[in-house]
């Protein structure tokens, strides 16, 4: 066994991983990276087709982002935002304010998507309390939703073995997910019937990513947003996975033509360099928290590393690079290519039941008789890093992926499905 795997298994506890079998799964132990490739402790290279769990937008070791990080190191690595400020954070907020799909935005920072979802839940609940409507304390979420693994986020979510924590989760109203016909009508009906007690509706706009890469019609998302507005319910858009160009627009909410009351950002915000997330509140929500110093309207919430200066500096430069490099145009062009490759070479395979793609956020759903995990393991052995979600193989390459690299991903995936499934295209 690779000595690094043995050392890893001896001390590290990996999330969503059975540690008793971890050493047997041929885990990749990363030593370094170049561009879109990871290089393991034995010098083998892997095309990072999952963007290191969907966070690495521009690739690894981007010189401009490296420079932003080292430049900020020469100033200050971190200072608290509890009652004080930081220039790097102010500049990031000003830059984000120009592009987020929300009116008069104000930014509250955390370090991961789930924590930012928690912030949004608390903001929504206290918003109504602050304006004298304490009874509005419930939440509506969708089936197949995933919003993170902290308790509030886990309560919103559906599946992912959350039953282990049912004693900690709070109840939510649940409408159909994007894979369910008529999901938007069902959700709107629930909003209308429960508006007096609902604080907010929480959705992943356009794509339910971790739930299986299910894609909604923008019209349906707009219908839900209009219902929230009509019935006086806040709309929370969780764009941890879909934000920063992943679906082909900078934010999926904008592609759907909606403006949420609270927006949750994470994953790609720093280009995959440092942990950072943000809860973005509209001016309407933010103003409800104004009051006397340390009074009851104050939002008594914050994280030690929220608004880390190093992360903020990198996030600001990353936002600039998305525009300077015209990354969204690359996403659009490569998405069209990837869709064509999947339709021609993956969809016809008898082990494949569906192919879904929005921008560079996609998934290949496999038949129950073939193991998606085994398919991903076979792809890794052939130099393409993939990680399954149930019976779905997610395809989430860097936003700067090239045509040649897409060809490599699809070729390896085709070979892996055929090898594991024991056959090729349908007859």
List the defining traits of the structure above.
single chain; alpha/beta; Aspartate Aminotransferase, domain 1; Aspartate Aminotransferase, domain 2; 2 domains; 16 strands; 37% helix
Layout of strands and helices, then pairs:
Layout: H1 3-11, E1 30-34, E2 37-40, E3 45-48, H2 51-54, H3 63-73, H4 87-97, E4 106-110, H5 113-130, E5 138-142, H6 151-156, E6 173-175, H7 183-194, E7 198-203, E8 207-208, E9 214-215, H8 218-231, E10 234-238, H9 252-256, E11 262-265, E12 277-281, H10 283-287, H11 309-324, H12 327-346, E13 352-358, E14 361-366, H13 372-381, E15 384-385, E16 392-395, H14 403-421
Parallel strand pairs: 3-15, 5-6, 5-7, 7-10, 10-11
Antiparallel strand pairs: 1-2, 2-3, 4-12, 8-9, 11-12, 13-14, 14-16
Helix content: 25-40%
Please give the CATH class of the largest domain. Answer: Alpha Beta
Portion in strands: 15-25%
What is the number of helical segments per DSSP (H or I, 4+ residues)? 14
Q: Overall pLDDT, averaged?
A: 96
The low-confidence runs, each spanning 5 or more residues with pLDDT under 50, are none
Q: CATH architecture of the largest domain, please?
A: 3-Layer(aba) Sandwich
> Nearest-angstrom radius of gyration?
22 Å
- The number of domains is 2
Q: Report the major sheet.
A: 7 strands, mixed
């Amino acid at each position: 066994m690779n000595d690094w795997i043995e050392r890893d298994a001896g001390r590290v506890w990996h999330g969503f991983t059975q540690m008793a079998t971890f050493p047997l799964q041929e885990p990749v132990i990363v030593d370094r990276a170049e561009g879109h490739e990871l290089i393991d402790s034995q010098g083998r290279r892997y095309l990072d087709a999952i963007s290191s769990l969907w966070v690495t937008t521009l690739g690894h070791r981007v010189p401009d982002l490296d420079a932003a990080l080292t430049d900020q190191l020469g100033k200050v690595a971190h200072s608290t935002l509890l009652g004080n400020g930081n220039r790097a954070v102010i500049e990031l907020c000003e830059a984000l304010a120009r592009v987020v799909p929300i009116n008069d935005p104000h930014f509250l920072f955390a370090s991961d998507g789930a924590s930012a979802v928690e912030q949004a839940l608390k903001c929504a609940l206290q918003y109504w309390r602050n304006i004298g409507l304490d009874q509005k304390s419930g939440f509506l979420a969708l089936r197949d939703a995933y919003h993170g693994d902290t308790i509030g986020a886990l309560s919103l979510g559906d599946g992912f073995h959350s039953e282990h924590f049912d004693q900690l989760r709070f109840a939510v109203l649940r409408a159909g997910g994007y894979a369910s016909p008529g999901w938007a009508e069902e959700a709107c009906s629930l909003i209308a019937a429960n508006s007096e007690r609902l604080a907010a509706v929480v959705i992943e706009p356009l794509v339910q990513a971790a739930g299986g890469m299910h894609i909604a019609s923008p019209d349906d998302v707009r219908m839900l947003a209009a219902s929230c507005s009509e019935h006086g319910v806040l709309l929370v858009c969780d764009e941890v996975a879909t934000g920063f160009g992943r679906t082909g627009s900078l934010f999926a909410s904008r592609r759907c033509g909606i403006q949420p009351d609270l927006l949750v950002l994470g994953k790609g915000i720093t280009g995959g360099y440092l942990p950072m997330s943000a809860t973005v509140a509209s001016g309407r929500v933010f103003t409800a928290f104004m009051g006397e110093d340390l009074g009851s309207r104050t939002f008594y919430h914050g994280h030690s590393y929220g608004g880390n200066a190093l992360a903020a500096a990198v996030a600001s430069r990353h936002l600039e690079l998305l525009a300077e490099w015209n990354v969204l145009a690359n996403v659009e062009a490569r998405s069209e290519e990837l869709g064509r490759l999947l339709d021609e070479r993956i969809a016809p395979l008898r082990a494949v039941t569906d192919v879904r793609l929005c921008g560079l956020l996609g998934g290949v759903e496999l038949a129950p008789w073939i193991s998606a995990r085994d398919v991903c393991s076979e792809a890794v052995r052939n130099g393409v890093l993939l990680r399954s979600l149930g019976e779905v193989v997610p395809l989430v390459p860097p936003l700067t992926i090239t045509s040649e690299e897409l060809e490599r991903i699809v070729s390896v995936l085709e070979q892996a499905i055929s090898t594991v499934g024991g056959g090729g295209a349908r007859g």
